[in-house]
Amino acid sequence: MKNFYLHDFIVSNYITMLQILFIIAFLFVLTFVVITAFKRIHPRLIESNRVWDDALIVAVYKPLIAAIWFVGLTYIIPIIVEIFIKDTAKYEVIDKIRQLGVVFLFLWFFIIFIRRLEKNLFNITISTSTKKKVDKTSIRAIAQLLRLAAIIIAVLILLQVFGIPISGIVAFGGASGIVLGFASKDMFTNFFGGLMIFLDRPFVIGDWIRSPDREIEGIVEYIGWRLTRIRTFDKRPLFIPNGIFMSISVENPTRMQNRRIKTTIGVRYEDSFKISAILKDVEDMLKNHPDIDTSKTLFVHLTNFAPSSLEFLVYTYTKTTKWVPYQRIQQDVFLKIIEIIQKHKAQLAYPATNVHFAKEYFSKKS
After folding, report:
1. In this structure, which CATH number among 2.30.30.60, 3.40.50.620, 3.40.50.300, 3.40.50.880 belongs to the domain 182-254?
2. Is domain 256-343 annotated with CATH 3.30.70.100?
3. Where are the beta strands (DSSP E) in the chain?
4. What backbone phi and psi angles, to 5 degrees, belong to 101?
5. Does the pLDDT value for residue 40 go beyond 70?
6. What is the number of other CB atoms lying within 10 angstroms of the CB of residue 239?
7. I need a surface site. Which of 43, 53, 56, 245 has the fewest CB within 10 A?
8. What is the pLDDT of residue 130?
């Protein structure tokens, strides 16, 4: 008896089952075509100089495969349900699910596209001659705004799909805005702090910053709407809420025009008659040094009669602002100053005390 009902069930739904098998086979074929096309097209787009085409194909790939199977299942499931349940209400549910899925797929596509485009822009240069990097801070800010706008639009569309009036949401938001404002005061402070960083631009990603008001010093790695991540010089990550930057002073050594060499050198009093020639030679050496910026303040002056030395001040600026090359240039300048002092048969001074005895002391001893 059971075999009879099974046979009757198969015969009566033979065409329906063929339809399901055909749809599944068609979905596999479409998936294979998309994967094959992506593997052939994507490597060519990576080699191009355009930033958007690679981002577009990557953003389309996964959402398109998901869309193929999602749409296919929304047609298969009603066919299967039709065999067992004769209810037209199910079509309304499937239609809502289909609309919901389409919104999420488009949101997924836009988020991947924006993220990939942001990544591609980070890797290009504005000018191949100067090798000047693009402004990562502006790119990140615009990308975050675009992602936020995409999410807001998706939420508004979903509200319309489910029949929720937007005017009611706006009215509710106005009534509860005061309560939420007090509850999330720090969050809004950090948000507007991040906004001020993007607008005033006291620093950007990659800058070395420090604060004399707080123990903050390192390289800026990330600027978000809530916090900024700084990598300290001992390679530890430092997470700072953006609201902090609204109340502290920030020093940006990255934007220095030059680095300064300032040092005081002492020569023995016994070499006082040689000090004028030493000062002249040191100043000439600085003016002819290839790494010294002669357009900035440069002088070598006798400044002090110290207890055990004649002190002169060396004051100049290097052309570079990078820390390691600056150290090398400063070392070279110091070594050349030592050579100049030795060339004049003078000596660098060191703390010393001379004791003078009166002649009467020696006469009494004898």
Report:
1. 2.30.30.60
2. yes
3. 125-127, 132-133, 208-211, 216-223, 227-231, 237-241, 259-267, 299-305, 310-318
4. -65, -40
5. yes
6. 11
7. 43
8. 43
